[in-house]
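Propose amino acids for all 91 sites.
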């Protein structure tokens, strides 16, 4: 699996992980009511999805598809927070 990371100066200030697949999804042990812990790729870089985000269910559904089916997505991480803000299909 090849994952690339690229910066973005867009309005949402995201760093993109392109063609990324999820290797693990778990409750965040430090904040189980607030976050899910998401590991991207074989190097297991850890990011988070906020359970309070209005897009939480949609994001988690796509991340689960990646985990269970090996489907790759372009994943946007908010800079300086490690919070996943977007999960887009690969064009």
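Proposal:
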């Amino acid at each position: 699996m090849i994952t690339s990371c690229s910066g973005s100066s867009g309005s949402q200030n995201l760093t993109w992980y392109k063609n990324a697949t999820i290797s693990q999804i778990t409750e965040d042990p430090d904040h189980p009511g607030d976050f899910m812990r998401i590991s991207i790729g074989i190097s297991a870089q850890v990011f988070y999805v906020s359970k309070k985000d209005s897009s939480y269910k949609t994001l988690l559904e796509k991340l689960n598809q990646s985990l269970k089916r090996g489907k790759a997505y372009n994943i946007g991480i908010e800079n300086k927070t490690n919070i996943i803000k977007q999960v887009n299909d690969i064009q």
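The longest helix spans residues 56-69. The mean pLDDT is 89.
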